[in-house]
Amino acid sequence: MPPAARPLSGSAPPRSVEIETLGVRADIVERGVDAAGGVEPPPMSSPDLVGWYGGGPTPGAAGSSVLVGHVDTEREPAVFYALSTLEPGAEVRVERADGAVAEFTVRGVDVVEREEFDAERVYGASGPASGSGQRDAELRLITCGGTFDRERQSYSANVVVSAYLTGTTTSA
Question: What predicted TM-score, i.e. pTM, was given to this entire model?
């Protein structure tokens, strides 16, 4: 795995996310928290959008930024349908409003049952701190997973991808 890169400064919001190995290229919209206290996903009417938790760090900045997207709709797969198939070493690119592109490397993919969902474990730091003592820039990609319960109309788990910043470029 490549070494962690120095976090970006500034708080330019993210504009799009690209996961080439999955064929994902999606716009990002800012989201808050829902009534249950989780990050509010984009509307079901926009299954190709990804939500960014605006109350947290900007992707590429120090800390753990969170992107959420739907796995499917009633009729078709959605933006993060294949998220659970990502493997360590895969690249995720996030373009920011300041023109910077934060390049992340996937560290791991976990399926977390809803009853076992621990916000600190999921949203907190997953890797070692950089040698400078400064917190690394990390990214969490989250969607539904596990078994679909037709009666409750929900999934039993979440797929959580953990990645860390390994480089930056500028958008063309």
Answer: 0.90
